[in-house]
Every structure is written in structure tokens, then in C-alpha cells.
Specification:
The chain has helices at residues 62-71, 88-108, 124-132, 154-157, 171-178, 188-204, 207-212, 220-223, 253-264, 286-304, and strands spanning 14-23, 26-34, 43-47, 74-78, 117-122, 141-145, 239-244, 269-274. It is of the alpha/beta class and 305 residues long. It has an 8-stranded mixed beta sheet with strand order 1-2-4-3-5-6-7-8, with helices on both faces. Helix 5 crosses helix 6. Residues 1-9 have low confidence and may be disordered.
Amino acid sequence: LCVSGQASDAAKLVKSTHAYKKIDGVKIEVDAYTPSAKKNCPVLVWIHGGALISGNREQVPQRLRELAATEGYLLFSIDYRLAPQAKLHEIISDLDDALAWIRLEGRRKFGADVSRLVVSGGSAGGYLTMMSGTMKPAPKALVTYWGYGSLDAEWYAKPSEHYRKAPLVPKEEAWKGVGEQISTGAFGAEAQKRGRFYLFCRQQGIWPKVVSGFEPGKDRDKITPYCPVRNITPSYPPIVMVHGTADTDVPYYESANMAIELQRHGVRHELLTIPSGGHGLGGGNPKLIEWAHGKALDFIREQLR
């Protein structure tokens, strides 16, 4: 068995960076956080958010780092190519390749028990986590934070009233900000420019087309393979979803719709709802937020036991 560390061992995770893929001369990397007791350890994978346009692998929640250190998990955090230069099929390909690398090298390099593998992510990372549940082999279990199971719902395919309250981002500024080069992780000034590009996409209602290349409403059949909510089967992994009802970026009904489909197919699931919680749960009751995070961590412990 993997020997658990102590809570004070959080700082003892040893971080190393590895290229899990190289394409067109661009390395795509994964960070491995190795606990002091690293033999036969289960695996926890984190996928960052950022609307598939921004974000980077260093954005690992402190709660998960502490959990990995305390319980003796091997924690991986992955990068992937970002839109608009990369389209959705390429991003999903990166996710598939990252998980394949983790299964192979987790066992070979780190002596991990990759049969015990949980994937977790927030927002767009929550979406990619849901997508990982449709892959073969699927993870043992999933945990998503304010994620979404569809890509062509009205909230993304029409101009956002919420985001149009801000001054409109000029088209030229938005596209100039992201440039033409492939990015596999946005930091600093680049992240700010990509944030502006995302704001532009939401203000114009073009995000689905920008990240997928498909026209919502016209290309439903092409988008469907990339919508987890339409690809759930009875073999889909157990999942816990955390979402706030006042989320102005990803509507709460995205997780609620997933729960309906999971129920219909008899898949074990739990939707942890935070009334009045926004994107990231801000505005919700702090005690309820801690309760939800605690329940999610307990679920990970159960699945990786």
C-alpha cells in the first residue's frame, strides 16, 4: 500500500516537469507532484480552466496539493494547446495523450497504481474532466468544479448580457492579443490578453465557433461528440460536481443537466449546490462552500482508497 504522509508534509511534494507530447516543434508539458512515499500510490489529475483559451498547469488548487501530500497521492497537472490557434479536436487529443502518458509513465517513472486514477478540473477544466469520462479507458472517478457538459447551449452561443455590461472589446484588439503562435499555457501579460479575447468572444456570442470551428445550431451533429452530456452511458465513471446557482459565467443548469442524464443512465453522481454562489462559488455561504469542498475531497479519498 502507499504510505500516507502527514498534513505537515504539504511542502514535501517534489515537483518535476515533463513533456508528454511534442507537436509541430511545440512541447506540451505536465507537472508531477510526487509525495515522499511514492510507491504504489494512486493518481490525482488536475485540469486547469480558462475557457480553453487561457490558464496554465501551475493553477493547482491548494486544497488538492494538500490532499495529495497528506494522503500520499501522485498529483499531475496538465497543459494543453489553447484556442483559438488550437481547435477543440486538438485540445481533446492533447487530453487523451496526457492521460495515456500519465498511465504509462506514472507506473514506469513513479511506481504509481494507475488503476486508481481520479481526474478533476474547474470550469473549462471541469468540461475536460467530464470529457475524460467518455474516453477509453475512463478514469476511476471524476470531480468537477463549475463545469459544463455542452458546447452549443444558448449561454455561450449568444451575446452574454452579463459580459456586455463591460465596455465592448474591439475585434482588432481581441485578435491581436492572442496572436498566431500556438500557446500551451498562458502566464502574466499573455493571460491578460487572452482574458480580453475571451471577453470579446462572450460579448459577441462566438465562443463555441472560435474554440470548435463549428456553427452552433447548424453543426449539432459535429459538436455532439464533444458534449459529455450527450455521451453518457451506464459505464460513465462516478462523479461529484460542485456548482453555484448564481454563476454568471457557466450557468448552474449545466451541472444540473449532467445530473439528469447521469440519473437516467444509473451512474453514481452527486451535485453539490451552493445557493447564490457565483463562478468559483463567491457570494455563497462560506460554511456551505467549505462543506462542498470537504465532500469533494472525501469522495476523492474514497475512490483512491
